[in-house]
Amino acid sequence: MNTHRCSGPVSRRRFLEVGSLAASGVSLSSMLRHRAQAAESHGSSFAPDADTSVIFIWLPGGAPHTETYDMKPDAPIEYRGEFNPIHTNVPGLDVCEHLPLHAKMADKYNIVRSVAHNFADHGGGHKRFLTGRIPASPVDTVNDNPMVGSIVAKCREKKSVGIPNYISGTDPGRDGIDVFAFGPAYLGPTYVPFSVAGDPSSDKFEVRNLGIDKAMSDRLDDRTRLLTGLDHLQRQVDRSGAMDAMDSFNRRAFEILTSTKCREAFDLKKEPQELRDRYGMHAWGQRCLLARRLVEAGCSFVTMVLENPYQSGVPFLKQGVYNWDSHSVNCHMYDDLRARLPIYDKCITALIEDLYNRGLDKKVMLVVTGEFGRTPRVNPAIGTQTGVMQPGRDHWPQAMSFLVSGGGMQTGQVIGSTNAKAEHPQDRPMTPNNLWASVYRHLGIDYTMAFPDRRGRPMPILPFGEPIDELLRVS
């Protein structure tokens, strides 16, 4: 495998200039301009790598490992909870009874059960997991180190395939970079994701923020949205000759926005309805399908957030909660999971199946995780919404599980284990950094290289951590 090394850091002055920009209001053409300016200060950046990508499915709030991928049926009832494990098509790899589609295709993914860290707050947990670094503050979601997706965008900034290179999908109003610690920190606002908020299963879904500069819009006399007006816009440009008047950065931005590849990648109506139904005509399902379309089109890093299942026609449970934060004061954990897990089961297995069916299982690595697990012991309390005693679990970073698929790796493996009550790693203790070292290796990024922070100090992409051997490419 070829590994491309960074040729050198960006100057402190340039990073201060870029870092001073506000993350909001940065247009695509402005972002391209700032990236080119940053590259000028050190001559070059990472060369475009082989055709590899990552789909990162984020489950904010922290999915319970003991109700999904690390069940403990022999533990006391106050630990094992209400759900039972079921066998899969891989001996020794059991999953929750509410994940029956997972059970049919366990040979196509791996479960890592022995990752832990020390940040029990959502903010600290998000930052610790998403950056691979120890955050300065154990709370809030304002990054002091770049999210992994921003690092990938920086390392692949020279890659130009007619589609943004780092894209995220969220619920409406949840697309700010500080909602989930998606910020680029000292890399600067040019490396934020192109965020697409909304429900892709809705007929009214549109990509609002992949727009063009207002000045360009005025010159071209076109204010329609992407996916509904790009054909008209391109025809207007061709007739007016306005392209000649644009600088190279606006030209490149326009080329991305009007390219057939970009336009078609976001158009889910091009998929057979049967396949859309397989994913589920729900925000989560169509977000996962969109992720596949985006990496197939060449995007390097796609983050899709599966947070609130109570949308797309799914009625909200009074005893439910909008994210995976299953405290008993927030929800009746088991009632909430009975509604949540079937949707999750369907979209995640459809994505895995689709990647393999389309021959993308070597190019694309899929990672599915939240920021931590849940307490091994069930903690009943009176629900805020229901006013009655109900079961739940609190934050627990000392043990968690996540799913990994694709990436050319051997699959059908259980990697690591926790003790009998799922309290802490027993075999193969790891941290989030082991996952990210594996991801960077898949992408051909030398994670030992450093970028300067705002004070000019070299910051390694990963300060520690080695790849998980079982997740390395085998073919």
What layout of secondary structure does this protein have?
Elements: H1 12-19, H2 28-40, E1 53-58, H3 77-80, E2 85-87, E3 94-96, H4 100-104, E4 110-115, H5 122-131, H6 148-155, E5 166-170, E6 194-197, H7 214-220, H8 230-240, H9 248-258, H10 260-265, H11 273-279, H12 283-296, E7 301-305, H13 333-357, E8 364-369, E9 373-374, E10 381-382, E11 389-390, E12 395-396, E13 400-406, E14 414-415, E15 417-418, E16 425-427, H14 432-443, E17 450-452, E18 458-460
Parallel strand pairs: 1-7, 1-8, 4-14, 5-6, 5-7
Antiparallel strand pairs: 2-3, 4-13, 8-13, 9-12, 10-11, 15-16, 17-18
Provide structural commentary.
This protein is α/β, with parallel strands linked by helices. It folds into 2 domains: 12-206 and 269-452, Alkaline Phosphatase, subunit A; 211-265, no CATH class. The protein has 14 helices and 18 strands. It has helices spanning 12-19, 28-40, 77-80, 100-104, 122-131, 148-155, 214-220, 230-240, 248-258, 260-265, 273-279, 283-296, 333-357, 432-443; strands spanning 53-58, 85-87, 94-96, 110-115, 166-170, 194-197, 301-305, 364-369, 373-374, 381-382, 389-390, 395-396, 400-406, 414-415, 417-418, 425-427, 450-452, 458-460. The chain has an 8-stranded mixed sheet, with helices on both faces. The longest helix is centred in the last third of the chain and has 25 residues, at 333-357. The radius of gyration is 22 Å and the shape is globular. The protein starts with 11 loop residues before the first helix and ends in a 15-residue tail after the last strand. Mean pLDDT is 86; it is low at 1-27, 38-48 and 210-228.
